[in-house]
Amino acid sequence: MINWKSCEMRKLFYVPLESYRERYTMQLSAPKTGWLERKWVQESIPYERIEGETLNKEITVGSVLDACGRGYWSNSQVMKLLQKVNSGEIKSGDCIFFDDFWHPGISALPYAFELLNIHPRMYAVLYAQSVDIYDFTYPMRNWMRHFEVGIGKVLRGIFVASTTLRDLCLYAGIGREESVHVTGLIYDSEEVKSRFPTYLPDRQKQVIYCSRWDREKDPLFFLEVVKRVHSIRPDIRFVITTSSRRLRSNDSSLLDALDKVPHIVVKEGLTKSEYYYSLLESKIQMNTADQDWVSFTLLESTTCGCRPLYPYFLSFPEALEYRNEFMYVKGDVESAVKMILSHIDDPDGGLDSFSWVYRKYDLTWKRMLNVMECIPYDFWSKELFLYEKNNRS
Predict the structure, then answer these.
(1) Does 22 share its domain with 162?
(2) Cβ contacts of residue 277 below 8 Å, gap of 6+?
(3) pLDDT digits over 207-222, tens only?
(4) What residues have CB less than 8 Å from 74, skipping those under 6 apart?
(5) What CATH number does the domain containing 239 carry?
């Protein structure tokens, strides 16, 4: 454990996403137990959490966050930050870290900084936004892109999960070469494993689908694959999971299409422990997404020893280290079917079989803190140093 009192460090203000049980924001951003804060607490890293105020306790309208709740939560955080700016608690050189680049109300901060002549450093994680033609925000780009480009100019750093997304941001004029950093997704495999049952289930000939049932995840392609596989191997089981009380979609026709494929089990209202149990007993975790920049489901499923099966598309090849045996041709049903049949009968390799997928993301929180200069460089572990060295070469 490092004695941080003896280190000269920047003051760190953490601005988290609102935690919804049915979305990853609960595990990502929960106070002290979230994937990011849990690491900070373990290492006694000093920071201050800027909590927002909740309008809706669950998502009523929206894909990832609530349509109105997002603005209410984030604007209340900005008000608290402005109070700290006004009282002199936030000074030049301090760091403000946002869980998500899309933060309504954030433009009030650089306005205040300019007039007060102080220079705090702001950083944010960018997951997709309107730079991605498949993202649900893309139709809003006629006004949203101006916001993104403007905020990209006042942020000291933007964190993205892959080089593919970094290149897309730079092409769209969001950020600068020196300000967009490929750090990976925030993740904590230890926290995930802590939720495993004492006795692990036997691996079944089961394919699990964990994405949202929305258009940008291309669930109709998944249904076509299921029907084709079922006609060849009816013994292979297909499961869809959701933590929502009911499987929901922004497009009711997608739910209608699912109802017409009777040989799929839908597990609803799952706790994280129940969800991990389903992953632990599945042989393959399949993703069909058009829009997904690495994917938390990829990291969780491989932590559970599931074989990933992803399209050769966007950031997935990079995340899977270009190992073709875990990727199918995007949009090609026969290619996906062939991959399922080639893996489903293989013996279980154990929980550590796919640690090469997720272990590098366990280090994301260190990369971010180092970019923000919130920890001294000697805090870089040997493991992180070797990974970065190999990645550069």
Answers:
(1) yes
(2) 197, 201
(3) 999 998 999 999 999 9
(4) 52, 103, 104, 105, 106
(5) 3.40.50.2000
